[in-house]
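WARN no homologs supplied; continuing
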Amino acid sequence: MAQEPFFPHPQDKYPVVYLEDTDVELPEHVVNTGLRYTHFQLVATGGKCIIQSCKDYHLSRTIAHKSLRPEIADDPLERKRFLREARVTAMLQHPNTIPVYDLSRDNRGHYFFTMKLVEGYTLREILDMGKADGTAPVDGYGFHRMVTILIQVGNCLDYAHTHGVVHRDIKPPNILTGPFGEVTLLDWGLAKVWNETPAPLPDLPLLFQKDASLTAQGRLQGTLHYMSPEQIEASPKLDHRTDVYSMGVVLWEILAGRPMLEGDDIHDLLNQVKNVVPPRPSAVALDREIPKQLEDICMRCIAKDPDERIGTARRLVSALRSWRLRWSAETR
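OK structure emitted
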């Protein structure tokens, strides 16, 4: 069988992203006067940030403007995380990341950064639409298309990991597909960069309450349903393999047609992540013809022990490409 060509990885020569570069404060004189960006329109409002489209007066183009919500815009921890997201996104210049154009303060002294305005559907929206209209990926073509998306995400993670950056929040809402087949990995606000040591966690039950997606100081970094066991434990040895685990959880959901972890009970979810080996997708989705090779890749990614997982994002991409090549040959 003919092999897909592999290209050299010039990013191996690039410097590692260090904490001292991502978290340093902006100089006081860096302030936008308010004359460059005009015609703001709301695009999305999240738990911490606001994204608006605006006109860049200097370059006569429409771009995206991201800022912290007003109620947390002066919080030192959130400001630091916001700076890190802007700089990590800017420093990881890859086809599957969003180009960042500017980082500054507004006339109130609040941080913002501008970036390419991207359009499309998130993988979460695609999966949910499939469930709603009965077109979920239950056949070979559907899985082929989804694997192509994951290959691009894996390439982006390989690039980031080479630079010493771990995403820590891989999940379907953070994977965006565009109208030209492009795939973008979003939201680097929880990225772990070189020399960062996870802070010890206080009593977890007191922190969780009813929220399975916690990101505040002293809390878990990421979304519980897609987090690895070592991420939940805030292990000081946490590395790139936590992203491999999360990719496996996303693949499990694609194959089975439902999330790997379901429910809202925090204690139960914590126990599942740390102690319960998930069933194979084929044991859950009995009405689907799930390719065994893909299922094997998935189960290797979600092993509880990081040493038993597929070791790198590059190897995961290679495994997914291998299945895609076999599928293409068999369907000709």
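The CA atoms of residues 45 and 51 lie 6 Å apart.
OK
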